[in-house]
Every structure is written in structure tokens, then in C-alpha cells.
Fold this sequence. Notes:
The complex is a heterodimer of chains A (about 110) and B (about 110). Chain A is mainly beta. Chain A has strands spanning about 5, 10-15, 20-25, 30-40, 45-50, 55-60, 60-65, 70-75, 85-90, 100, 105-110.
Amino acid sequence: QKEVEQNSGPLSVPEGAIASLNCTYSDRGSQSFFWYRQYSGKSPELIMSIYSNGDKEDGRFTAQLNKASQYVSLLIRDSQPSDSATYLCAVIVSGSARQLTFGSGTQLTVLP
Amino acid sequence: DAGVTQSPTHLIKTRGQHVTLRCSPISGHKSVSWYQQVLGQGPQFIFQYYEKEERGRGNFPDRFSARQFPNYSSELNVNALLLGDSALYLCASSSAHRDHTEAFFGQGTRLTVV
């Protein structure tokens, strides 16, 4: 079982819709969770961090964490074509050197 | 403030050669980590340095080595390059070595081994 799993997609949503991206992780002791956006040919860009159960909102982005179920999600409201990218879920696994463990990413396409 | 800077941005090397990649972290950040990202996958952890000491090493062969300098910049060295080393090499900068610390990536170095 991979430590961090994401649906690879591709996920397509129409412009203005809500995009929902999901991530599950295997280490129950993990405490730190991140979402990165990566445009094709570019490096990952941090868009959200979340450490406590519940929701965290930043503009059109909402991260949701449920430690009991070991999943993290990212909602993108009012999706725009510029949101088309690969979204990477990353976890700091407990007992590690505090490095990021990434999922393989979900490719999102927002259709105009 | 300048973000994380990496050099060079692109590099083509021949099998068996050696390569050195460089990274300057965000001003004030003392932790640098290196990641390898091959096409279609998430980044894979290679090394982490904090306060000039190695704090973690991923599952990479001994051909990979790194160091951090007194000004917190870092180098990643790869010896005896293989075709499979072709990837995007990413440097991440963070302010501390603890949980709940955000990491920010440089633009990466695209290494092609031919």
C-alpha cells in the first residue's frame, strides 16, 4: 500500500463548478498535510496546508482533513481554466525526517 | 524577497558523467531538501539538511550525495549518471525542522542523461 494515494484522474469539470480532489494516507500518526499545484513543466507551488481536523478556507480553496478516516481533500470553488494543473497531496509522515511524502497527483482540467 | 533559486535550470549529461546541482533557500530558511520527480509521479525525497547537518536520506543509491554550506545553500551531486537519473530535481526550502512547517520549491533543474 502506498503511503499517500490520490486518484490520478484526469478529472474534468466545467468552468464555474466545484472541483473535488481527494487523498488518503496510511500513517495514522501523520500531523501535517499539504496541497501543491503543479503546472505542466513547472515546479510544485504550495496552495494549502492543514494540520487540524475540519475545514480550512483560503479564497476559492478549501482543504478538509479527517484524521480518523485518514483522508485529506481539496475543494476548488468557481473553477477557472487557469486552475487546470496537477494537484499533489503531500504528508509529513510521523517518525520520518519530516520530509514530504507525495501522492502521484491528480490532473485537473477545467473546461471553458 | 527572492524565493528558492536553483541552478542550472536545464542540463544535458552523458551516461557515466557527474553532475552538481545548486540551491539557494529563501532568506532566513535553514532547511533544504532535495526531491527527484520523474514524469507522471510525485516528487521523491532524496535528502534533507538542517543547520548544515544531514537530517534524512531517502531510498537513493550512494551515487547521490549532498551538502549544505554555512550560508544554508546546498549542492546535490550525482555520480556515474544513468539514463534513469533523467528527471526534474527540486529543492525545497523551509524555516525549521519540525512538523507544521511549510516547504517551498524552487523552479527545479531538468536533468537529461543521454
